[in-house]
Design a protein that fits this description.
Order of helices and strands: HEEEHEHHEHHEHEEHEEHEHEHEEE
CATH topology: Metallo-beta-lactamase, Chain A
Largest sheet: 9 strands, mixed
CATH architecture: 4-Layer Sandwich
Strand order of the largest sheet: 7-6-5-4-3-2-1-14-15
Helix content: 25-40%
Strand content: 15-25%
Shape: globular
Distance between the termini: 33 Å
Radius of gyration: 20 Å
Length: 387
């Protein structure tokens, strides 16, 4: 009896946390067995600007790690090397490749996940260069890293740098495969299915295309007898998303395109839906339309990691940069028709500073964490979502 009671007391459910960072991405997944996976790291806030409403990312993350009694992440995934996905990487993490980045206060990374393009890109500096250096170092060591996709160019780069491909191919995760070490039947109650990048596509490109060679995943999170699905889209455009849909259908993997909770692509850009912005709503190309309107489950939640959606006719509404009002109108319609929610990380119901907010994975679906400040463009319910 006591053992069963202790088991119940220590049982945790998975949680997914979002951070208001402007047009930038950071997402934290706390798995059911306590493992922590960080997807991107973008410390965007201006520390000396009291009017900057973006959260203090390193402080938020350190607070959570301290509460958990740890100084490391089980995995850190950098989906691609754009600044809004890796800014501050060199100031926050303990890096194996150089003692300069090994101070006592730095946060360690057990596994670093990066796309193959992150190892192959040349002519880069700043935090992008540090991500590349760390990934290359770990690949040379043969541990603590997973490389997503195996273009022929990666194999050649390894040969040119004296790294034995055969002894390290277990560190490479191709599209259509699961990230090793995580199963929904095991203690983590989670699996990470890789949709992109595609190795053959990188070999066709003469230069690295960060957005289209970035990591796209579906995360399955199990609680009780129910699986909930998190879709992580990085900065892929409609052409890449269409290709992912087509390949998934070809291989009978339509289930790998289901979603209850979606981290929106490219900060609510219309280009993730189709080639034309539209007047009031962006029209999605057929394959992307299928992803949004057929694969979403009832109560689906879309989170846009972006600045507030501009008002029609405003100066921001004419800006070429996302977020785009027309794309947001598409997303609002999709979830409204299914009793769902569209959330923007930098929108707020008051002038209070926006805070980190998150969702927990229950046996009944995805629910807003009780007591978490909600940063929303539409009324949201804390009732668990039914699928």
């Amino acid at each position: 009896m006591r053992a069963a009671q202790n088991l119940r007391e220590h049982h945790m459910v998975a949680k997914v946390h979002f951070f208001p960072l402007g047009n930038a991405d950071t997402l934290r997944i706390d798995l059911a067995n306590g493992l922590k996976v960080l997807v991107d790291y973008a410390d965007m806030r201006c520390a000396d600007d009291n009017d900057d409403l973006r959260c203090d990312l390193p402080a938020e993350l350190r607070r959570d790690l301290s509460k958990a009694g740890r100084d490391y992440y089980d995995a850190v995934c950098i989906t691609h090397l754009d600044d809004d996905h890796c800014k501050g990487f060199g100031g926050f993490f303990w890096l194996r490749h150089a003692k300069t980045y090994q101070g006592a206060e730095r946060i360690k990374i057990n596994e670093l996940w990066v796309p193959a393009a992150a190892l192959l890109e040349e002519g880069i500096d700043g935090d992008a260069r540090l991500v590349r250096a760390e990934a290359r170092h770990r690949l040379r060591e043969g541990k603590g890293v997973y490389i997503f996709s195996r273009p022929a160019r990666l194999k050649k780069w390894m040969e040119d740098n004296g790294i034995d491909f055969e002894s390290r191919k277990h560190l490479i995760v191709d599209a259509g495969k699961l990230v090793p070490g995580y199963t929904k039947e095991g203690k983590a109650q989670a699996e990470f299915f890789v949709h992109s990048p595609f190795g053959w596509r990188q070999d066709e490109n003469t230069v690295v295309d960060r957005n289209e060679d970035s990591i796209v995943m579906q995360v399955t999170l199990r609680e009780g007898s129910r699986d909930s699905y998190l879709f992580l889209g990085s900065d892929a455009n409609h052409e890449t998303l269409s290709l992912i849909v087509q390949i998934s259908k070809k291989h009978g993997n339509e289930g790998r395109m289901l979603w209850d909770l979606m981290k929106l692509f490219h900060h609510c850009s219309y280009l993730s839906l189709g080639p034309e912005r539209g007047v009031d709503e962006t029209k999605a190309v057929p394959d992307v339309k299928w992803l949004f309107e057929t694969q979403v489950r009832r109560g689906g939640i879309i989170v846009s990691p972006s600045w507030p959606i501009p008002e029609k006719g405003s100066k921001e509404d004419k800006d070429v940069q996302p977020p785009h009002r027309q794309a947001a109108n598409h997303h609002r319609r999709v979830v409204r028709d299914l009793d769902g929610t569209f959330v923007v990380t930098m929108e707020q119901p008051s002038r209070a500073r926006p805070k980190v907010f998150g969702y927990e994975i229950t046996a009944f679906g995805v629910a807003l964490i009780i007591g978490a400040p909600m940063v929303s463009s539409a009324a949201a319910s804390s009732t668990p979502r039914a699928g």
